[in-house]
Amino acid sequence: MSVETDRDLGAELASPRAGHRGIPVDAICTGCQTVHVKRVRPSEVTKTTDADPVTLDARALTSFKHVCYRCQTATWWNPTAVLSGLVETERAAEEDR
Ligand SMILES: [Zn+2]
User: For the chain, which residues make up each domain, given as ranges?
Assistant: First the structure.
């Protein structure tokens, strides 16, 4: 299953639905199967919080609680991919500041 299809991951990340803190991951809602980019704090999905987020394996991450706009409540989301490209982009932007 590809996550790169016709989605604009950067735009999804910029939307309020992604949340405001943490690293970008692609995730699927366990309630309605909606797929959306979400920000998660590493401590929410892994015990190895000292690891570089870019090196995290999505399959090793645990599900996390986040608001789903379709379910209209906080639901559990399963991370399907760590969007390391977006992590790198944000780091580059921060270094320019
Ligand atoms: Zn949902």
Answer: 9-96
| Gap from CA of 73 to ligand 1 centroid (Å) | 8
CB-count burial class (<10 Å; 0-12, 13-18, 19+) for 83: buried
The rounded distance, in Å, linking the Cα atoms of 92 and 88 is 6
Nearest one of 42, 41, 37, 32 to 16, comparing CA atoms: 37
**Helix boundaries (H) for 16-57:** 42-45
Q: How far is the CA of 87 from the centre of ligand 1 (A)?
A: 25
**4-39: pLDDT as tens digits:** 568 999 999 999 999 988 999 999 999 999 999 999
Going by DSSP bridges, is the β-strand pair 35-40/73-82 parallel, antiparallel, or unpaired? unpaired
**What's the CA-to-centroid distance between 97 and ligand 1, angstroms?**
36
